[in-house]
Amino acid sequence: MALTDRPLLSVLDLVPRSQGMTPQEAIAASRALAQDLDEAGYHRLWMAEHHGSEAFMSSATSLLLGHVAEHTDRIRLGSGGVMLPNHSPLMVAEYYGTLATIHGDRFDLGLGRAPGTDPMTAAALSRGSAHLPDFAREVGELHAYLGAPRSGARVRALPGEGTAVPLWMLGSSTGGAQVAAALGLPFSFASHFAPQQLEMALQVYREHFDAEAETAQVERPYTMAGINVLVAPTREEAEYLFTSSQLMAARIRTGQPAPVDPPVEDLASAVPEELLSMTADFHRVRAVGTPSEVVAQLESFAAQHQLDELIITTYTHDPELRRRSFRLLAEEWGLPG
């Protein structure tokens, strides 16, 4: 893949908290990372809604995005995503319309159906329906609230009306792909943790994309996919640091949430073999190694799936090594920072 054919590079941040770190320190670390990404020339930074998590401090996503916007200048910011059944479309339009009113055209609104939490916490959120028809209807309502003023409308998002914050559809299955296609929205697939249906979802999306839909945001199918990345000066160090991410996946799979663990020399001694095989899909889509190795892996993944954009997620116990990973990748990729 030639340099000019490379997809855009973006970043997904769940505001991870490492063991020994306070929530305040985790948010400060993500703010520092956002400033690095802004300076390096990454295209966009998204934050994802999670609730009741010991590891991720991103429950109030819109507040975090407003905080990051105050400390960056250029990078696009957005939700990756807002779990729409957890909220009313009107409130989402007001929150993101307010961000756009304050900071201008820097925000994206990625939308998903998953709860982003456990069943009890989901119930406490007074979660609504996640069925595809209901979800698609609420996306349409949100689109209308953010669009041009409607004659005679009794319910309006103020601020928000007229901001036209770009909508994205997120998904980890063909369901999200169907909604994205029917509504004419750009589509981001969560292959960084659920890669099983990546190819099928992209096929469904591309074959059924409707550029004439009232909610359409793009003229042709536009695809992004997630990938786990860790860059270090040597492959050995990268694989060692990546064990923190693998341990995190094991905790998620076994329902034992905790802040991000330090890396381990021997993963097999820390995680039973049967559990490692159960969590393999969490990191099947990965690019881990030296800067040149990771760039080659990213190019191959993007070319294989004909992606317009890659969205990268990186976890390390030491937040400074996470920042280093993104700096090394930016330098090797040739970002304009």
UniProtKB/TrEMBL annotation:
Domain Luciferase-like: 18-302
Pfam families: Bac_luciferase
GO molecular function: oxidoreductase activity, acting on paired donors, with incorporation or reduction of molecular oxygen
CDD domains recorded: Flavin_utilizing_monoxygenases
Gene3D superfamilies: Luciferase-like domain
A GO CC term assigned to this protein in UniProt: cytosol
Highest taxon listed in the record's lineage: Bacteria
Entry similarity comment: To bacterial alkanal monooxygenase alpha and beta chains.
Record-given protein name: Luciferase family oxidoreductase, group 1
Native species: Kytococcus aerolatus
